[in-house]
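Protein modeling request. Please complete all fields; requests missing the sequence field cannot be processed.
Requester role: graduate student
Desired output: 3D structure, token encoding
Chains: 1
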Amino acid sequence: MNLTLKSLLALVVAVVAVTPAISAEPASAAAPAAASAPMAKGQETATQVCGACHAFDGTRGAPTFPILQGQHPDYLYKQLTEFKSNKRDNPIMAGMAAMLSDEDARTMANFYASKKAEPGAARSAEMVALGEKIYRGGINDRKIPACAGCHSPNGAGIPAQYPRLAGQHAEYTEAQLKAFRDGSRKNSIPMTGVAAKLNDREIQALADYVAGLQ
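Delivered output (214 residues):
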């Protein structure tokens, strides 16, 4: 088929006209990858720095260490900065946090928070009954407030203010309550005041109860 010069020019113009629409598609396809970069960075930091103790995804590891998955990102970030400044005293975590930049701490906190928390389980029906009574109603004669007031009835906590407790290792929760009580953990004045009024059995009961909250 013979093309006149006029027809050939028209064909060239038509090809050029559609070229931007074709080249624009890869750019838009690249957008989701760029958006996930902070999450990928958080996962990398979690794997390299935190994975040995907390598992890379913050899942149910050893009860000595807290479960991080599903925790509020602002709370995780706050704890990391307080370990770094020694406001929360823990030599191991102070050393780990010292290696993190502010960006590392934020992206890692967001990564762990993005993971769905797995359910836990209580161990003693007797302890759960006592724990539930304190968690939901407090202890009036000692002016101990109900835990549910700050951590919510289902243990979900309040973002940026109070941590998620539901499903947390009972051993870890018990250790933290005792640390607040004896003053070795000093980074929450309200919790220091509450824990100071609890005896060992009440602390154990609360820890067992929140472990089974969902």
